[in-house]
Amino acid sequence: MSVGDNAPVSFAYPWVVTIIGPTASGKSDLSLELAHALNGEVINADSMQVYRGMDIGTAKLPPEQRRGVPHHLLDLWNVTDAAHVADYQQRARVAVLDITERGRVPIVVGGSGLYVRAVLDDLQFPGTDPAVRARLQAECDEHGTPAMHARLARLDPAAAAAILPTNARRIVRALEVLELTGEQFLATLPTPVTVVPSVTIGLRISRDVLDVRIAQRVDQMWEQGFVNEVHTLRAQGLEQGVTASKALGYAQILEALRTGNDPDSAREPTIFATRRFARRQWSWFERDAVVQWRDWDDPHLVAHISALWGQRETVRTP
């Protein structure tokens, strides 16, 4: 995002601040400081913090640590529910309007690129058919995720290249969209057209530092009782949750429990998977030309963002 001399553009929604970056880069702490500086409220854009009970493993701030800052779009769904990005989008837009109408600043915070785009952009989501989805999921269960990824590669090479061969949920979704619409999956995600204007800040952090912070976070999760949280959610049907069961850490602990291994054996695989996920987050966000990247530990970051907010009407967006 840049400040220029062009005439202001009219948008369908009021302005927001957006904080993005890889997991463990300090987004939550920054959002609290910024909320106090700007009289703001936080809108969650983390795809797993929308699930009730998934607290420790998603680094969801407990109410007592939110420093009095209202948070929106947390704990929307049960762990047995599939992701509903279109529903999330509608709720987020309502939150943006509500917060602004009360004279406060909406601060969108998260590392889930699709959820951030759902808030800011004119993103239309293809429909779904439960019968088609169930059939494809059954085929995936029977033949295995690699076979389904190979099928996707034949039908939609671009989507297959963008989706990990182990990500069964996204593979099934891509095949479903292809079958229902006749269009390739990535073609349903058009070039972004902004409808919610944003001062968007990305947190820049070195890979070495981030790797250390991720390991420290995972260790802290275990100390806080992450394994017990998974046991509790498992009793509530976590393993049947198409989306929630694939979350980082939860998937690794569930695998250990299913195979009779010590849940603590899932700690190192969780660190590895989280580091790999952070690399994919970089890849997603670095494609976005409107992001202003700033060092995660810049002591003047809140003042800088506050100054940009004051100049927001002169900010150009694509």
In short:
With 318 residues, the protein is of the alpha/beta class. The protein folds into two domains: 250 residues, 3-Layer(aba) Sandwich (Rossmann fold); 59 residues, Histone, subunit A, CATH 1.10.20.140. Helices cover 46% and strands 10% of the residues.
Q: Would you write up a description of this structure?
A:
With 318 residues, the protein is α/β, with parallel strands linked by helices. It has 2 domains: 2-124 and 190-316, Rossmann fold (3-Layer(aba) Sandwich), CATH 3.40.50; 130-188, Histone, subunit A (Orthogonal Bundle), CATH 1.10.20.140. It is 46% helix and 10% strand. The chain contains 12 helices and 8 strands. The chain has helices at 27-38, 85-101, 113-120, 130-143, 145-155, 157-162, 168-181, 207-223, 226-235, 250-258, 267-285, 301-310; strands at residues 2-3, 16-20, 40-44, 71-72, 105-109, 198-204, 292-295, 315-316. The strands form 2 sheets. A 6-stranded parallel beta sheet has the order 4-3-5-2-6-7, with helices on both faces. Helix 1 (27-38) packs across helix 12 (301-310) and helix 8 (207-223) crosses helix 11 (267-285). The radius of gyration is 20 Å and the shape is globular.
